What we know:
Number of helices: 6
Bound molecules: 4'-phosphopantetheine
Structural class: alpha/beta
Order of helices and strands: EHEHEHEHEHH
Strand content: 15-25%
Radius of gyration: 15 Å
Largest sheet: 5 strands, parallel
Number of strands: 5
Strand order of the largest sheet: 3-2-1-4-5
Amino acid sequence: xxxxxxxxxxxxxxxxxxxxxxxxxxxxxxxxxxxxxxxxxxxxxxxxxxxxxxxxxxxxxxxxxxxxxxxxxxxxxxxxxxxxxxxxxxxxxxxxxxxxxxxxxxxxxxxxxxxxxxxxxxxxxxxxxxxxxxxxxxxxxxxxxxxxxxxxxxxxxxx
Length: 159
Ligand code: PNS
């Protein structure tokens, strides 16, 4: 079977325990997993791209086939540049599925060579999102139960 190069794209602002769970599981499925941070997001970020890349590197340091990278523009163009044959996305809820299905179909139309696979979020992380972690932090709460230790250290500095 051909070597599987997978991309796990996202904003990762900040990376959560749910992201780390997905990275670990996707790393077992692919020969090489690229965790790709979207650069040109419209959202008001909590962390810079560089900080997010640093955190992702730290929390995935024990996974030798995982690479952290950033990308601009269309995901399918990035997938073509990186010769990736798989896009991995996590699904927590039916609402996620609707959005992700649309994105998967559009991406598949633009670049049929790259297949999208959905991984169900593990039950214990199915309620977790970066947006909610950000809100907890902004309102002075403690997100220690929701993010890896390396992320928690930086969140404390933001708060
Ligand atoms: O973590 P997120 O914010 O849910 O990730 C969304 C992401 C980065 C996967 C998505 O917005 C994306 O792929 N953006 C790149 C631009 C693109 O290709 N858009 C067309 C998708 S149909």
